[in-house]
Design brief:
Structural class of chain A: alpha/beta
Strand content of chain A: 5-15%
Number of domains of chain A: 2
Number of helices of chain A: 14
CATH architecture of the largest domain in chain B: 3-Layer(aba) Sandwich
CATH topology of the largest domain in chain B: Aspartate Aminotransferase, domain 2
Helix content of chain B: 25-40%
Radius of gyration of chain B: 25 Å
Strand order of the largest sheet of chain A: 2-8-7-6-5-3-4
Radius of gyration of chain A: 25 Å
Order of helices and strands of chain A: HHHEHHHEHEHEEHEEEEEHHEHEHEH
Distance between the termini of chain A: 64 Å
Strand order of the largest sheet of chain B: 1-7-6-5-4-2-3
Largest interface: A-B, 207 and 201 residues
CATH superfamily of the largest domain in chain A: Type I PLP-dependent aspartate aminotransferase-like (Major domain)
Oligomer: heterodimer
Largest sheet of chain A: 7 strands, mixed
CATH class of the largest domain in chain A: Alpha Beta
Distance between the termini of chain B: 13 Å
CATH superfamily of the largest domain in chain B: Type I PLP-dependent aspartate aminotransferase-like (Major domain)
Chain lengths: 440, 482
């Protein structure tokens, strides 16, 4: 096989040196009963050409890939500048392991440090880790951290949280023996803070939330005593909106896909996790830190490792080891490539296009916007007929919209959620309006 | 090393996007919600950006740069086809909430990979949702927890672990709500079966094993171990970090595993990316299948679909369906290898390890001598002049190699854990042996020099203590630069 350099002569020579007469002798310690039970896959090896062709055919079967996406709900069809993956795909980054040997891992470590800095800046927090798996596990880890700090056995969570985040939170909370208390939303689509009980370790909000509505974070912290305020944020929106850090959030988490990652049917993703320095010893996951080398030159290493599983074992803050390093690198290059100004431009484009579309849909007979809270680039539309019929009509015209089931599960009936990114053109929006029956 | 924050800023970096038209008010975003202070994201020109990250890449060492014998990490060569298929726009541009009918191509390979992994594990079903080995461990232990809940045996709270276990094992057990108890290894580095039997009672939920273990030794009494645990009413978790040792020759399901996790970023050649994204699918035994995460990926009436209706499921552990593009790379790899390729992998991985072990034990201490599998553990404790495993590691850097895993497993003093993988040839292994012998000689002849290694790396030896004591975790914008 061409991925194996040893020749048969090499193998013979090596076996001789080891003092064995056959390859099978290398496996003599595997119990015979185990070896006898073995069954192969029944899989013939295929050439690179055959596998490449097979993959191309499968790729062509994904109709969603060629549709115009107005789908959102945490994953968005953003533009990725060319430099991002051109650089992130360099094999020195791609084929390296976790930076256990810092002197030959400065590329990964500097990028981690830059990433932490950028995420802290973006969220308005003091420290960030070097990434978690995805936005859902980042949120679950935040809930666990709040529980480690306050130990009340209960965490309040807004009902307006995206269901895919809620599902993972629920699994982790069950594992840790934490009860989740659901807080309803009001007519504006925002979390109704009157529903937050006392005696919780934390309150979880998402902003913009599952309805696209921007939560009102002002004063929330004062109303929840010493419970930790955990906010799940959409990083692109933070180019334009005041970050949760300015409202005294204790933990800001998020899904980083919008920062340069393809949608890729939902993976790999990028979990963002930022908090205050006071909670440093409780942070889950890897963190890079600055130090100096033997010559006094600045360099970077993995820091605060005493929190981690390889040292603390069952008393670690998390079990996480491999995370989303390469995705964090891509996000770092994305942010550095667009700059603060570019990030604001993307956010403005998203917001302005979404608001223009919402306004045009509102004017179509029978359509309405059920929530009056402010939104960023995503909103809920109540449809005059069965939303699944509307969705099918849109799909037939080449537009990808999420199914109405998710909103229905949150108590919002007969509705669709539409998301708009900077990639959507005026022409696409005109055609969408046409299909909805709003053509002039 | 310089960060992006220290590079010359440009005053005009617009142009990635067209400018937004209209005022913010017209855009509909109220003034009060707007960001008051912009984030300090650098503004650099594209050439500056490209040179910075190119320079950073050159300060990294990857498998493409040379031998990377990091024990327990299976740093094998990553075929370029993997990256090519994962970059196809037809896979990259699919929204995860698209109707399954619109994502048939992706669901096809996910379903296909589930089947292949189930065959490799010798277990009836697989979930691709976990995205790392530790995530697979956690998910597997959630299955244990749910299983005992469903049987009214919630008092089974204890997980047994050999003292050679990976750190993620106890951490995952704790996160899933279990307590952990260590069982000692015997003098040959294997589980002390009598000690295990003595520890088994009605409070034990199960055992977590790594096969072969972290010393690279195959548990000869594996069937006795798993039988004993099952007879006591417990379950057996198999950490799959070391699957490369027996691919195409043995299956965890045939050894008594109830859950086995894969590390696709190790065994299946999807790269590691400097710390992820990985993929840690789990295979489950018959009695645990009903608890696997949702959605399940199924084929019904000739079409692939997502199945949410599973009354006993633990729920979800990932936003969507796991690391789809990583799964795609593993799928492409498995199709290329086939059964014959899988056997060649384990054959060469184990032969390479035994060859290195045989040659290196002439110079270094080998605390657990005997046939090894894909890796083995030397001790640097016997080197003269108090030369440590860390010194050996840094000396290897100067000779063009990535160092082995050091100071793990914890039961070996000054451990050097070496895993060459099947993608190194004899010539490369011989060069590694020469380098190790030269280091042993330097330990004797010039220990001070060795303690100052590395000299040829982008930075000299780094002060870890200082990073721990005075943490600087974000760029100090507010301090005057020096």
């Amino acid at each position: 096989m061409r991925y194996i350099p040893n020749t048969s002569a090499d193998r013979r020579e090596m076996l001789d040196r080891v003092g064995l007469d056959s390859v099978d002798a290398l496996f003599a310690d595997v119990p015979q009963a185990v070896r006898e039970r073995f069954h192969p896959l029944g899989l013939e090896p295929q050439s690179e050409l055959d596998v490449a062709e097979h993959a191309s055919r499968l790729a062509a079967e994904n109709q969603a890939a060629s549709m115009t996406s107005f789908a959102g709900g945490g994953i968005y069809d953003h533009y990725v500048p060319s430099a991002v993956w051109n650089l992130a795909s360099r094999s020195e980054f791609v084929t390296a392991y976790t930076p256990y040997q810092p002197e030959i891992s400065q590329g990964t470590l500097v990028a981690m440090f830059e990433f932490q800095t950028l995420i802290a800046e973006l969220t308005g927090m003091e420290v960030a880790n070097a990434s978690l798996y995805d936005g859902a596990t980042a949120l679950a880890e935040a809930a666990l951290m709040a529980e480690r700090i306050r130990k009340r056995g209960r965490v309040a969570v807004a009902r307006s949280l995206l269901p895919h985040l809620r599902r993972v939170l629920q699994t982790y909370a069950w594992g840790a023996g934490i009860t989740l208390h659901e807080v309803p939303y009001d007519a504006s689509g925002r979390c109704d803070l009157a529903g937050v009980p006392e005696d919780v370790s934390g309150l979880i909000l998402q902003s913009p939330n599952a309805f696209g509505v921007i939560e009102s974070l002002e004063g929330v912290k004062d109303r929840i005593g010493d419970a930790l305020l955990i906010v799940s944020a959409y990083p692109i929106s933070l180019g334009l909106l005041e970050p949760p850090g300015s409202f005294d959030a204790d933990v800001v988490v998020g899904e980083g896909q919008s920062l340069g990652l393809p949608m890729a049917y939902g993976g790999p993703l990028l979990g963002l996790f930022a908090t205050r320095e006071a909670h440093l010893r409780q942070i889950p996951g890897r963190i890079a830190g600055q130090t100096v080398d033997a010559n006094g030159e600045t360099g970077y290493v993995m820091a605060a490792q005493t929190r981690e599983q390889h040292i603390r074992r069952n008393r670690a803050t998390s079990n996480i080891c491999t995370n989303s390093a390469l995705c964090a690198l891509a996000a770092t290059i994305y942010l550095s490539s667009v700059g603060a100004e570019g990030l604001r431009t993307v956010a403005e484009l998203c917001a302005s296009k979404a608001h223009a579309l919402a306004e045009r849909i509102r004017r179509i007979d029978g359509f309405e916007l059920p929530f009056d809270g402010p939104f960023f680039n995503e909103f809920v539309v109540r449809t005059p007929e069965d939303p699944e019929q509307v969705r099918t009509r849109l799909a037939n015209a080449g537009f990808l919209v999420e199914s109405s089931g998710e909103l229905a599960s949150l108590g919002v009936n007969r509705s669709l959620r539409l998301a708009v990114t900077e990639r959507r053109t005026e022409d696409e929006i005109d055609r969408l309006i046409d299909v909805l029956g709003g053509g002039s | 090393m310089k960060t992006i924050f220290e590079l010359p800023a440009s005053d005009d970096v617009r142009g990635v996007f067209p400018e937004a038209e209209g005022t913010l008010d017209e855009m509909g975003v109220a003034e009060g919600l707007l960001r008051r202070t912009p984030p300090r994201i650098p503004s650099v020109s594209e050439p500056t950006l490209v040179r910075h990250y190119t320079a950073l890449s050159k300060a990294n060492f990857g498998v493409d740069d040379g031998l990377y014998p990091l024990g327990s990490c299976t740093m094998k060569y990553n075929p370029k086809l993997n990256e090519a298929v994962a970059a196809l726009p037809g896979f990259a541009r699919v929204h995860p909430k698209a109707h399954p009918a619109l994502a048939q191509g992706t669901l096809h390979f996910l379903h296909g990979l589930q089947g292949l992994l189930s065959g490799v594990a010798g277990l009836p079903d697989v979930s691709l949702q976990p995205v790392a080995g530790a995530h697979g461990e956690l998910t597997g232990l959630f299955l244990f927890k749910k299983y005992f809940e469903s049987r009214g045996e919630s008092e089974r709270r204890r997980i047994l672990l050999p003292d050679s276990a990976h750190g993620t094992n106890p951490a995952s057990a704790a996160l899933a709500g279990f307590t952990v108890a260590e069982i000692p290894s015997d003098d040959r580095g294997m589980v002390d079966v009598d000690g295990l039997r003595a520890a088994l009672d009605e409070t034990v939920a199960g055992i977590m094993l790594t096969v072969p273990n972290t010393l690279g030794i195959f548990e000869e009494r594996i069937l006795e171990i798993t039988d004993a645990v099952h007879e006591a009413g417990g379950l057996c978790y198999f950490d799959g970090a070391n699957l490369n040792a027996f691919l195409g020759r043995a299956r965890p399901g045939d050894m008594g595993a109830d859950v086995f996790h894969f590390n696709l970023h190790k065994t299946m050649s999807t790269p590691h990316g400097g710390g992820g994204p990985g993929s840690g699918p789990i295979a489950a035994s018959e009695r645990l299948v009903e608890f696997l995460p949702v959605p399940r990926i199924v084929k019904q009436n000739g079409a692939f679909d997502l199945l949410w209706d599973a009354p006993h499921t633990i729920g979800a552990v990932h936003s969507f369906y796991g690391n789809v593009l990583v799964a795609l790379k593993a799928y492409a790899y498995l199709l290329q290898l086939g059964d014959a390729g899988l056997r060649e992998v384990s054959e060469n991985a184990v032969l390479n390890a035994n060859y290195l072990q045989t040659r290196l034990k002439e110079t270094f201490d080998l605390p657990y001598d005997g046939l090894c599998k894909h890796e083995f553990v030397l001790s640097a404790a016997g080197l003269p002049n108090e030369i440590s495993a860390l010194d050996v590691a840094k000396g290897l850097i100067d000779r063009g190699f990535h160092p082995p895993t050091v100071y793990f497993p914890l039961i070996v003093r000054e451990a050097l854990m070496i895993e060459p993988t099947e993608t190194e040839g004899k010539a490369s292994l011989d060069r590694f042996v020469e380098a190790m012998e030269a280091i042993a000689e330097e330990a004797d002849r010039n220990p001070e020099g060795l303690r100052e290694a590395p000299r040829s790396a982008p930075v000299r030896r780094l002060d870890q203590t200082r990073a721990a004591r005075e943490p600087v975790l974000t760029f100090p914008f507010d301090e005057p630069s020096t």
